[in-house]
Structure prediction request, 294 residues.
Amino acid sequence: MSKLDKQSGKKPDKQLDRKVDKMKQDYSIRELAKEFDVTTRTLRFYEEKGLLNPSRSGQTRVYTMADRTRLKLILRGKRLGLSLDESAEIILMYDPVGTNSKQILSLIDKIQDKRLQLEQQQKDLELTLLDLEAAEQRCSESLSRIH
Amino acid sequence: MSKLDKQSGKKPDKQLDRKVDKMKQDYSIRELAKEFDVTTRTLRFYEEKGLLNPSRSGQTRVYTMADRTRLKLILRGKRLGLSLDESAEIILMYDPVGTNSKQILSLIDKIQDKRLQLEQQQKDLELTLLDLEAAEQRCSESLSRIH
DNA sequence: AATTACGTTTACGTTAACGTCAACTTTAAA
DNA sequence: TTTAAAGTTGACGTTAACGTAAACGTAATT
Prediction:
């Protein structure tokens, strides 16, 4: 029996289970933490910062698919070296917050800025990879000379 | 008159100026800071951490071309989201520190690790760029609908 | 002689992103 | 019913990467 069942009740409800298992809907804080290899403290912290906002069942947090997705984006951002605020900004870019054309235009500007920054990162990445390849090459040559 | 001239003396020394301007050799802390848009505090901090080690003229720091290069690499690392320690590690990978094959093999391992990490970053970068492009697209469509 | 410009060291302050208790509640199991 | 497991909210601690300020030296300019 899955943890989800544990949460929603003891005996699985056949009525609801019929076609609704198309995708896991809700997650406990532990589940999510485990899946993404972060601590629960981290998840609470992200919530405190407004990056996640799970609903509550009593006072217990219940994470939805949307939260999971945002968490994924945050962690992706981290791997890129972005700060939480930067990731938050980017996530906001993904869904249309502004409704009037002035806001949309400003959003487009911000998107362009980020793109430029990320493209610079791409260049830096490639340079670094090239350097590493060269270093590896030299190592190999050293080895063959030793042998 | 360049700052270099200021440093070496008031009147440019014809003797030394003859062919020695093939490349700027030394930099004051201000020059380097200005060129890379960091503060002098930052340069001293990097030195404290062992990332740079300028020679001294009296107690005044004199940065060489080697320092400049390392600084460049450090800042490149920063743009990738690397910590100073990580950048330091990478820089160490660039020149052969170990002489025996065991050390070299371990270095190769570390290089591979970094490469894997950076390649993961590349993937994340591309995904993020794709997301941003899509977001930009949606913005444009919103605009055209408004118009 | 006094100011200005650049350099130095020492040391405390700051922000981000959590870690690490502590003290407590609620639910599930033995 | 006691215990164990997972949840909660504070609140203080920690590390990295500098910022900022104090107190001082030196050298050139006014």
